[in-house]
Specification:
The complex is a heterodimer of chains A (515) and B (261). Chain A is of the alpha/beta class and 515 residues long. Chain A has 23 helices and ten strands. Helix content of chain A is 65%, strand content 10%. In chain A, the strands form three sheets. Chain A has a five-stranded mixed sheet with strand order 7-6-8-5-9, sandwiched between helices. A three-stranded antiparallel sheet of chain A has the order 3-10-4. In chain A, helix 1 (2-46) packs antiparallel against helix 6 (125-158), helix 7 packs antiparallel against helix 8 (180-208) and helix 10 (259-274) packs across helix 23 (502-512). The longest helix of chain A is centred in the first third of the chain and has 45 residues, at 2-46. Residues 242-247 of chain A have low confidence and may be disordered. The longest helix of chain B has 22 residues, at 239-260. With 261 residues, chain B is α/β, with parallel strands linked by helices. Chain B is built from eleven helices and ten strands. In chain B, strand 7, helix 8 (178-195) and strand 8 (198-203) form a beta-alpha-beta unit. Chain B has a six-stranded mixed sheet, sandwiched between helices. In chain B, strands 2-1-4-5 form a four-stranded antiparallel sheet, covered by helices on one side. The chains are: A alpha/beta (515), B alpha/beta (261). Chain A binds chain B through residues 111, 113-114, 116-124, 127, 131-132, 135-136, 210-211, 213, 216, and chain B through 58, 60, 80-87, 89, 91-99, 108-109, 112, 142, 144, 158, 168.
Amino acid sequence: MNAMLEFLQQNWWDLLAHFRQHVQLVLISTLFAVLIGVPTGILLTRKQSLRGPVLGIANIMQTIPSLALFGFLIPLPFIGGIGGRTAVIALVIYALLPIIRNTVTGILGIDPTVREAAVAMGMTDGQILRQVELPLAMGVILTGVRVAMVISVGVTTIAAAVGAGGLGVYIFRGLRNYDNRLLLAGAVPAALLALLADFLVGWIGKLLAPSARRTIKTGRRVLLAIVVVIVVLAGLWSVQSHSNSLGSEAVTVASKDFTESILLAEIISQLLENEGVGVVRQYELGGNLPHEGLVSGRADLYPEYTGTAFTAILRHTPLTDPRAVYQQVKREYKEKFSIEVGPPLGFENTFAILIRGPDARRLNLKTISQAVPHARQWRAGLGQDFMSRADGYPGFSKAYGLEFSEPPREMDLSLTYIALASGNVDLIAGNSTEGRIAALDLVQLADDRHYFPPYEAVYLVRQDTLRRVPALGNLITRLDNIISTEEMRKLNYEVDANKRSPAEVVRGWLQAKEL
Amino acid sequence: MTTPGNSPLVEFRDVTYTVPGVSAPIVSSLTFAVNQGEIIVLLGESGCGKTTTLKLVNALLLPSSGEVLVEGKSTSTWNPITLRRRTGYVIQDAGLFPHFTVAENVALVPSLERWDRAKTNERVNELLSLVGLDPHTFASRIPSQLSGGQKQRVGVARALAAEPPLLLLDEPFGALDPITRATLQREFGALAKRLGKTALFVTHDLREALLLGDRIGLMQFGRMLLLETPETFLESSDSYARSYLDTLAVTHVRAADERNA
């Protein structure tokens, strides 16, 4: 509890900024969803033939898993990319269904004699809509908005994976670092926000309800007030995002969503800033997003591993010769993507097959082959990434003839170390540079059959960025072979175990290296 | 029918109305006229086409063949909005707007026609008094605070608001209890006579027809079987008309039985 308070004391300003970001994303997306959804719903009450298809499409869109939807949107021109815009589009897509459906239900649910009377009194279609249908359907429509907003608050936490910020940043960080304070700092405000949104829209609904006997004019005033608030917030946000995109001279540095990638990105970011080049940090992007961002030009550079580029992106079958892999990646990236591959940074982050130290010593295990006979009594815990990639579990288990007592459990990579140390599983596939390997007394088994391809860390940079920012090329050349595996483990440990910020760790390291 | 200087307000000329996919026409070869100041009651069972006939007058429906003339002009050439604002319309469940006050409901057409506020307020008060509702008590109420009979009174007031030359009433008192119904029938008859309104009134209640109609039109299967004054109607030898008249007799017999018991 004290730790939590201390954390809040130190981070409240940052927390507030993310909270505001979250609120803005939710409000803006809800505003757009209302602006699109309500007219669409009205149209569907007039065109019965469109009702089935449009509601069907909205339904299907809502069933797409949110992370997958973000993934689809990234490479799209104009609407896609990294950051707030993509997030808003995805959020609008999710918010549309409840709003459209409730608009249709609300209007069609009006007593038919009321509509008949309205027509017979000589009201035009527009007058019926404004004076009769919308006021009477308002309660149901607002219920739809309420549902849409609560959904948005939840989905927005996932938007952090595409660099849109918000409270999800804390949740992702917390999961990655196994830090409950971070998890709570993201999850609790998000839950409160959902409740608040639900309450506020419900309250507005009560104000506007016909039974509340507010005259139409009061209703209009309330509605106007809401619209003004939303527009102001939207304006704030656009000014902010505008200022973000102001520096056309700036270099956008992206990273993947784990500590090491963030550290490597921060190293080049700080070096660039020391040279007086503006930097936009787009860190902690999930899955394939850094690559997509780089290819589409929304990011200028990010740290990658040759093995990943070779198998996951270029889709070659794994090779074991580091030189050959590096050369082929360099050549194909230039040809296919106009992307330059920098020199290796000096360490490898390969898959490390890890077991507990006491087990290794008791059974005297040094290599994976030696462990195979024991594995039949073991349980394995593997990251999603390792389970799915070409050079991951299927090939690995075949190469060594590995069998476990039960199918491997698929879990978040950062949780596997704890799961291993606490005895919940007996073997994991971690990262060789993971800082907690030594701290948790884990032992890496040697890949004696040379199954895993080399994973040398390199920077990937767009060629046009190198032409635009000449200093960048020099910096990357200077970083050739500069970090050893032990050093990288230490840097990771500083962040993951000692909870220091990546920026601070990198600053210290750069000073020590006199860079 | 047409007499110079007193041309009919509404005239049906061989009007047939069919619905796609339904072989039998809803209304078939209808020819009749409603004269100025006259109340015609359309009598018949559910589904005989009497409501459709009403909707053909204010262009809620347009004839499949033939034409309906209102003030000498075909409903297909009238601007439907203009035509409807000149036609008062009262339906069974009143169809009041639940989010409007009584006053706002009554003022609907005047406000659509952009009357000034003072004139509208004056008119609303006048109409509420006319239909027997005290403006001070009822003007600011909302429909859910009214009884069924009060709602119908407001419905009638709303229909009369813009002083339309023609009233269309579709079983306006059909859902009311017998005592309230009888009161409203009596009051409406007196009111219509006093205001000299022309009206087309739909009902399935023979008593109501005899009480209110200057002429009674008996409809069956979309056709007008006969269109007579109440006196002639009572004497009619038509078998369908007789079966209606018999129900009246049965009602009287029952009533007499109950009194005797």
